[in-house]
Amino acid sequence: MSNLSVQDCDSLFNELPQEISQGVSLIKAANNWQEKYRQLMLLGKYLTPVPLALRQESAQVKGCESQAWLYHHQQLGQHFYLADSEARIVKGLIALLLAATQGQTTAYIHAFDLEQYFNDLGLSGQLSPSRTNGLTALANEIKALAT
């Protein structure tokens, strides 16, 4: 995973759109897996895409079945991430992770419990083992970059 240069940060690392937090609430409130899945797919549409020129191998998340890229920027004790994937479901999962970690402190991110978060959202046990492994790899990279 990579750190971008300072000149790239202003235009790429932003607070997440309000639609992502709204989507997280809709996923939590959904009564069945089909509705949760639909909301998850919609969630990824609100992520800032990683420009093609930045989709470098050095930024790829190892352990994801689908290609996913992750960049990090720290400013004033807060951590900001730019992440993307070619797979729609993975983009939605990335959006969920960023909803919990974007703009947070190192201590908060290191204390973040992925399993509890997905239990709270009603998503535990709903993802395939390969998606769960990729999600765990992404969460681990977010934590590793938050130093």
Helix content: 40-55%
What CATH first level would be assigned?
A: Alpha Beta
What's the overall geometry? globular
Task: Tell me the series of helices and strands, N- to C-terminal.
Answer: EHHHEEHHHH
Mean pLDDT: 88
| Count of beta strands | 3
Biggest sheet, spatial arrangement of strands: 1-2-3
Number of helices: 7
Q: Strand portion, in percent?
A: 5-15%
Give a short account of the largest sheet. Answer: 3 strands, mixed
CATH fold-level name = Sufe protein. Chain: A
Overall structural domain count:
1
**Stretches where pLDDT falls below 50 for ≥5 residues?**
none
Task: Briefly characterize the structure.
The chain is of the alpha+beta class and 147 residues long.
Describe the structure using short key phrases.
single chain; 147 residues; alpha+beta; Sufe protein. Chain: A; 7 helices; 51% helix
Written account of the structure:
The protein is α+β, with helices and mostly antiparallel strands and 147 residues long. The protein has a single domain (2-145), classed as Alpha-Beta Complex (Sufe protein. Chain: A), CATH 3.90.1010. Helices cover 51% and strands 12% of the residues. It is built from seven helices and three strands, in the order E-H-H-H-E-E-H-H-H-H. It has helices spanning 6-12, 18-29, 33-43, 88-101, 106-111, 114-121, 129-145; strands spanning 2-3, 68-75, 78-85. A three-stranded mixed β-sheet has the order 1-2-3, sandwiched between helices. A hairpin with a 2-residue loop joins strand 2 and strand 3 (78-85). The longest helix has 17 residues, at 129-145. The model has no long low-confidence stretch (mean pLDDT 88).
